[in-house]
Amino acid sequence: MGQMLVRAVLDSDACRLVAALVRPGHPWVGMDVGAAMGGVPVGVPVTDDAVSAIARAQAILDFTAPEASLATATLAAQARAVHVIGTTGFTAEQLARLRPAARHAPIIRAGNMSLGVNLLAALTRKVAAALGTAWDIEIVEAHHRMKVDAPSGTALMLGEAAAEGRGDSLADLRTPARDGMTGARAAGSIGFASVRGGDVVGEHDVIFATEGERVVLRHLATDRAIFARGALRAALWGQDKGPGEYDVADVLGI
Fold it and tell me: Which of 107, 124, 176, 182 could form a disulfide with 102 if both were Cys (CB 3.0 to 4.6 A apart)?
C-alpha cells in the first residue's frame, strides 16, 4: 500500500510528495523513493525521521499499524496536518487514544478508503433498518494470505453500519468466528467469517437471511490502487476542514 500511495501522489496534479516515511532501520532509508520502488528517481529520499517528514507536510497518508498510527497522530496534530488513516486492527482503547489529536487537526479514518465500500456501508445501514431483527446478518470477508488482522477493518465497518441501522452498537451484537458446538445463533446478532488465501485484494459480502429468502450486498476489489485514490481524495477534502474526526462518508457527503 505504501508504494500505491506514493504512485497516487506522484500521478496527481493537485499534490506534491514531500516525504516517504518508513520505520526506523528500514533498508530503503536514504534511497530515492522512486528508485527504491524500481522506477526512476523522483527527488524524494526515504526517511525514518517522522518529526522532520511530518513537519513539511499538509497531509499524511497512513496505512501502517495501530501503534504507529497513534504516534503519527500526535505529530500530525502538532503540525496541524490532515491525517488520513487507512490502518486497520485498532482496539477500542487505541481508538480512544486518537481522540486528543483530533482536537487539534482533522483525522479522516476509515476501515476502507474505497468509494464502493463506503456506498456499501450506507446501503447496509439502510437495509438493516428496513428489515429489522427478523433477518439474520452475516458478514463474510476474504483477503490475501499476508493480511494480519481478522475480521478486516472493512468487515467491522460494515458490522457497525448494520448495528447502527438497528439502533444498537456492534459491541452488543457481534458474534465472532464460530467453531465447535456453538448452538443456535442469538436473535439479532451479527456474525463474522474470514477467509485468507492467495492474492485476494478484498471481497466483502453482507448477507441478510430470513425464512425463505436472502439479500446479499457485495463489494469486490481487484486493484489496491482504489484505496490509494480514496485516501488522496480524503487528504484533499480535508484541507479546509477544522479539527475533528471524519470518515470517507463525510468526504463523499453520504
Answer: 107
Q: Residues 6 or more apart from 11 whose CB is under 8 A from it?
A: none
Catalytic residue status for 219: no
> Of the listed 26, 104, 147, 241, which one is catalytic?
147
Degrees, nearest 5: CA angle 39-43-45: 90
HSE of 30, CA atoms in CB hemisphere, 13 A: 3
Check if 144 is active-site: no
Q: Which of 83, 143, 204, 219 is catalytic?
A: 143
Burial of 78 (0-12, 13-18, 19+ CB in 10 A): middle
Per DSSP, the chain holds a count of helices (H) and strands (E) of: 10, 11
C-alpha cell of residue 48:
525514518
Q: Residue 68 belongs to what H/E stretch?
A: helix 66-79
Distance separating alpha carbons of residues 56 and 2, to the nearest angstrom:
18
Give tens-digit pLDDT for 159-208: 999 999 999 999 999 998 888 999 999 999 999 999 999 999 999 999 99
pTM of model > 0.85? no
